[in-house]
Design brief:
heterotrimer; A mainly alpha (268); B alpha/beta (353); C mainly alpha (279); A: 268 residues; mainly alpha; MetI-like fold; B: 353 residues; alpha/beta; D-Maltodextrin-Binding Protein, domain 2; seven-stranded mixed sheet; 10 strands
Chain lengths: 268, 353, 279
């Protein structure tokens, strides 16, 4: 009975994986296509990679995308976590106000947020470019971080930090040694969402950037209507970068944890 | 431990940003449509003059307008004719000193005459980049030439070809074919004519099951997925060179002719370099590379002669050279009433399917 | 604990400038007519009247909502089992699957959507396979099917992760207790697991429904240029027609509809919980 269930589960997961990965595999395969077509594979070639690396605009867009995503993720995770912890100790009124305000960028169609920000930057005479793009990304990432940290905080014992301080911890220590580790899963998932949102963002970036700064999405949107297999090469490159960095992110802590466990075992 | 990692990361980002930002090189910012310039042009220009060029791409003239209006500054823009007219009207552009452009005399003289010069009659504000027409690309194997020539744009409503046509997703171009087929000017202000064109398009949309796309039409027709399409001449030139069954036709009762041109905005931070860039773009070698890569008709007369002479790259390609001498051919003019009207009606046309 | 409260203040200032002010600007535009200049302020409902009295716009609005609802339903139907299966694995295996689910979302959305255009094309992979078996060709591109597929493809991981998070947060001893008490697996699922994971489903719905209803690049790429949705209209008002006032009004209408539907979703969720508690 149980075994049958398992097989069914694996088949289902397998199908989902095919669904999620088929287009990516397709992209990778066609990045090596000799011809220009997106539907007919005419032979193996590396020429689209050559064209991609020679293309300044593409390389710059790649750089801006990654830099913006890292900055936006780091800052929004920090600010979002701090705010969420503060909120969990705040009065209900304030909590409600912030939660409602946070709903705006989440509830609003991206294009509305984008136009709002465009008008704001124009009104404030801030020159549009990388800086405005990062600001905008931080703006729409923070609410997601708060959203994913808050539930973890709610499950925490409210007296935990107090107990720590009673035992002699400073408030900062109580924060970093007790509260933050307790809601780490929420923080990590918040950071993951933030990174994904920033990395993927098209609409908001499209409106708030300027002065030659564009990210991959904008590049793809403006260039992909025409068949340009360099885009396939670029996305293959992204797949490689992302896979490698994700493996590093996951493997290093795991190794560290194993080491820690070993030393802990010795100490015992 | 973790904190240190984060700090290092931050420092790394800031440093790379700083490095990217602080080149001592002179900088030029250009803003042009996507996939509209040879990949080599900018790097070659950078090498030649030891400068750095920031390239930003736009999806539509209107997108560009929004940004320029919002105060972004660029040194060179490459918009279409009607948009240049609007930018001139709203005082966003500098008057050009053509004596600073040594290759100016090489520009094909037809572009400086009616109907092509309508947007900037005296040529005071713009230097042409590419020029062309709008026409029908059809598959000769499935659609007889005689039929296309007889019906003009009206063939797009022949139900024999239902499900076999691409329409171009732009209110201006779609209304243009309706206006022309009805015998009106495409710059009309007459509400009855506009409504007649609207009905024409709704009928097409409800009876023909068209696939309405923009640049996707290029690969679509090159692969022969449909039989009829509304296409810009330069894209048609590419399609014809990829697929020998395809032909290009511009109705004799008139069509849209157009010019995309380079302009320098008033708030440009480096107009001197902008002149150098414009001059470089229309110089023989750069213009040759550009027209070879993109497929649109060059504005440099030497280049145009070279690629269309016997054995040239576009020899015998009927879509490449824009036509002249048809008095019903028009350029779009900037017309706020029509612009708003068409934008709203086009959504209704598309929603009618 | 009062010292922690101060930690909210920086964000209060930030959100006022970056969230509230832009929204006020949009409000201002929506209720004025006469171009993009704030100086000639003229309070007016004309923009709203124009949208709500025009049948075409209402049809488009209906279509956007329908596509978004269908996308969300498909995401729940595919996402819940996926999350459920993953949540039952051991800790190590779990993380691997979560990684596999999220990995695609790291790759640019427009790129991934673009790949589908090659797959779904009349002469694309699927139709090639079909024709090998003597079937087809079926037109996938530029249909509802293609648009919903593209949206599900892009938003499914959000749904899975949200449900997964709420499932793993759950106290498994509760479920074990229920099952030990003799509830059969199905009852155990419908009475305990499902209600407890509802918050995840709700936030999953939020993360899927919202981008679907306002999306304009996926309908554009897979539905073709004639595939008009509310997002497309707003875009054209801002970029083509240059009527920021009308565009702002449409966005407000959309935002209000979205908020109402979210409110209803949350109410339904709470209602179910109460019921669950009574049983």
């Amino acid at each position: 009975m149980k075994k049958k269930n398992r097989t069914g589960s694996y088949i289902f997961l397998g199908l989902i994986m095919i669904f999620l990965y088929a287009p990516i595999v397709y992209t990778i395969v066609f990045s090596f296509n000799e011809g220009k077509s997106l539907t007919k594979f005419s032979g193996f070639s590396l020429k689209w990679y050559g064209k991609m690396f020679a293309n300044n605009t593409m390389m710059e867009a790649l750089f801006y995308t990654i830099a913006c995503a890292l900055l936006a993720t780091a800052i929004s995770t920090l600010v979002g976590t701090v705010t969420a912890i503060g909120l969990s100790k705040s009065k209900k009124v304030l909590k409600n106000v912030v939660e409602q305000v946070n709903q705006l960028p989440i509830m609003n169609p991206e294009i509305v947020t984008a136009i709002g920000l465009l008008m704001l930057f124009s009104a404030a005479h801030i020159e549009k470019g990388f800086f405005t793009m990062v600001l905008a990304h931080i703006m729409f990432c923070i609410p997601y971080v708060i959203l994913s940290v808050m539930p973890k905080l709610r499950t925490l014992n409210p007296n935990l930090a107090e107990a720590a301080m009673d035992l002699g911890a400073t408030p900062v220590q109580a924060l970093t040694k007790v509260i933050v580790p307790q809601c780490m899963p929420g923080i990590i998932s918040g950071a993951l969402i933030a990174f994904t949102m920033s990395f993927d963002d098209f609409v908001i970036s499209y409106f708030v950037t300027g002065n030659g700064v564009s990210n991959i999405s904008i590049l793809v949107y403006t260039e992909s209507r025409r068949v340009n297999p360099s885009i396939n090469a670029l996305s293959t490159l992204i797949v490689v970068i992302i896979t490698v960095s994700l493996i590093l992110v996951n493997v290093i802590p795991a190794l560290a944890a194993r080491k820690n466990r070993k030393t802990a075992g010795v100490a015992e | 431990m973790k904190k240190k990692g984060l700090l290092v990361l931050f420092a790394g980002i800031l440093m790379t940003l700083g490095l990217a930002g602080c080149g001592a090189k002179e900088k030029l910012k250009i803003y042009l449509p996507g996939e509209y310039m040879s990949d080599d042009l900018v790097p070659d220009f950078e090498k030649k003059y030891g400068v750095k060029v920031d390239v930003e791409l736009f999806d539509s003239n209107e997108m560009m307008y929004t940004k320029v209006m919002a105060g972004d500054n660029y040194d060179v823009l490459i918009p279409s004719d009607y948009m240049i007219e609007r930018l001139i009207k709203e005082d966003y552009l500098q008057k050009l000193d053509t004596s600073k452009i040594s290759n100016y005399g090489k520009i094909v003289s037809d572009i400086r005459k009616a109907p092509y010069n309508g947007y900037d009659p005296a040529g005071e504000y713009s230097v042409p980049y590419f020029w062309g027409t709008v026409g029908i690309v059809y598959n000769e194997k499935n659609v007889p030439s005689s039929e296309v020539e007889e019906k003009g744009f009206g063939i797009m409503k022949d139900t024999k070809y239902a499900g076999k046509i691409y329409m171009y997703d732009s209110e201006r171009d779609s209304f243009m074919i309706a206006f022309k087929d009805l015998g009106y000017s495409m710059n009309t202000n007459n509400e009855d004519e506009i409504n007649a064109a609207y009905d024409w398009l709704v009928e097409l949309n409800t009876t023909m099951d068209p696939t309405t796309v923009t640049d996707e039409v290029i690969d679509g027709m090159a692969q022969g997925r449909k039989d009829l399409a509304i296409v810009y001449s330069g894209d048609a030139a590419y399609i014809l060179s990829e697929n020998e069954d395809m032909r290009y036709y511009t109705p004799s009762y008139g069509t849209n002719v157009w010019v995309d041109a380079m302009v320098i905005p008033k708030n440009a931070s480096n107009p001197e370099l902008a002149y150098k860039f414009i001059d470089y773009v229309i110089s023989y070698d750069a213009a040759m590379g550009n027209t070879e890569a993109v497929g649109y008709a060059s504005v440099n007369s030497d280049v145009l002669n070279e690629v269309t002479k016997e054995g040239g790259l576009y020899d015998g390609n009927e879509a490449y050279v824009p036509r002249t001498g048809y008095d019903k051919d028009e350029v779009f003019t900037d017309n706020e009433f029509l612009r708003k009207k068409l934008s709203e009606l086009w959504i209704k046309v598309k929603a009618s399917k | 604990m009062k010292q922690f409260r101060k930690m909210v203040y920086p964000y209060l200032i930030w959100s006022t400038v970056m969230i509230a002010v832009p929204m006020l600007l949009i409000l201002l535009y929506a209720f004025t007519v006469g171009g993009n200049s704030v100086s000639k302020f003229m309070f007016s409902f004309a923009n709203f009247k124009r949208f709500l009295t025009d049948k075409t716009f209402l049809v488009v609005l209906y279509r956007s909502l329908r596509i978004a609802v269908e996308t969300t339903v498909v995401c729940v139907l595919l996402g819940y089992p996926t999350a459920y299966i993953i949540a039952k694995f051991t800790e190590k295996v779990k993380m691997r699957w979560v990684l596999l689910i999220t990995l695609p979302t790291w790759i640019n959305m427009l790129v991934r959507t673009y790949a589908w255009t090659g797959i779904l094309q009349d002469d694309g992979v699927i139709n090639s396979i079909l024709s090998f078996f003597g079937a087809g060709p079926i037109t996938f591109m530029y249909t509802d099917f293609a648009v919903i597929l593209g949206m599900v493809y892009n938003f499914l991981p959000f749904m899975v992760i949200q449900i997964y998070t709420s499932l793993t947060k759950m106290d498994y001893s509760l479920i074990e207790a229920a099952c030990d008490l003799g509830a059969n697996p199905r009852k155990c699922f419908t009475k305990v697991t499902l209600p407890l994971s509802m918050p995840g489903v709700i936030s999953g719905i939020t993360l899927v429904f919202l981008p679907s209803v306002s999306s304009f690049c996926i309908p554009r790429m897979l539905g073709g240029g004639s595939y008009v949705m509310v997002g497309t209209i707003i875009e054209s008002q801002f970029l083509t027609a240059g009527d920021w006032n009308f565009g702002s009004a449409i966005s407000l209408i959309m935002a209000i509809i979205i908020m109402i539907s979210m409110y209803i979703t949350k109410k339904v969720d709470k209602g179910e919980k109460l019921e669950g508690a009574q049983v």
